[in-house]
Amino acid sequence: MRIFPFAMPFLPLIGHDAMRERLSEQVSRGALPASLLLQGPPGIGKQRLALWLGQRLLCESDNAPCGTCQHCTYALAGVHPDLLWYFPRPKIKDSSDVAFDEVAADYAEAIADRSAAHGLYARPDGSQAIYLYAARLIVQQAVRTPAMARRKVFVVGDAERMVPQLGNQEAANAFLKLLEEPPADTTLILTSSEPGALLPTIRSRVVSLRVPPLTDAAVRVFLAQPAAATAAGNNATIDELVLLAHGAPGALIGAENGGIALERAKKLLDAARRGREGALRAAFVQGTSKARGQFSDVLDAMTVLLHERSRDAAEKGDGAVAAASARAVRYVEEAKRAAEGNVNPQLVSARLLGQLAEIGA
Hints:
- The protein has 361 residues and is of the alpha/beta class.
- It folds into two domains: 17-210, Rossmann fold (3-Layer(aba) Sandwich); 254-359, Up-down Bundle (Four Helix Bundle (Hemerythrin (Met), subunit A)).
- The chain is 52% helix and 7% strand.
- It has 15 helices and five strands.
- It has helices at 17-29, 46-58, 70-77, 100-116, 132-142, 169-180, 200-203, 216-223, 226-232, 238-245, 255-273, 276-284, 292-315, 319-339, 345-359; strands at 35-39, 83-86, 152-156, 186-192, 207-210.
- The protein has a five-stranded parallel sheet with strand order 2-3-4-1-5, with helices on both faces.
- It is globular.
- 42% of the residues are buried.
């Protein structure tokens, strides 16, 4: 196998040191679960961490992942035949009977695009999903002998968007069986920003690990990478980007979406300050559960705005506003946890904005 001319290495994984040490130690002891779920807020690098773990599993060096062997080189370029990465994609036209080769080619092209951008990409929009044909391909590939390494690793990003949850029962059952009893040479790593949207039958078959947001120091290291700073854009200073990232620098990729979320967050906070009635009207215009990902972005933006308000109030000596803003942040964090489940954003908004109206935040 050769690395294609357009393949560029992904940016190095930044942060998550404690989790990496823990996972690496489990690999060394042969104690890593065969089916994992990495869950946490969007943009904190869960898929990049999963790919790092895949590289760790495939590398055969004593100091794995060494970063220089053939397995690592191919993994870092996104072309290792035994590190298979699936994530939401636009539906292939006439997808009722899609050949596996066509699905594989579609994902190879998508991964090449991400590789060309050093592994930096905007969050998939709501029209993209992991469709039935992709789930069937995963099941088929799982029973094959590894092509190059001693094992195979599947990374399934944004796993809550897997169509088999609601579609063909045969495909769903096959994937569930794979999660429950993967071949001995196979590891499956799912990631999700909305674990509550996963079916209980999936969650019960994986070992869940919560991935925390990055520290501000790690976000700064991430943004120090020229490719990351360019992708984040926003015409903002590093300090502003660190504040806006709120521990999730991947959320900065796709500045237009970030700008929309920030504007919606401002409108919701303004509505809450106008009183309970205005707050409830604002909550009513929130999207349905299909827009849950965008709603989570709005909540993240609200946290940023409230932190700024609290800081400014503290600098001006306005203790009442600073205290109300800090309390409001706690309410927003509670709303984020509720939004991770199968709860309609309108209901979450109504409760949150009612709380904010009461404290005058």
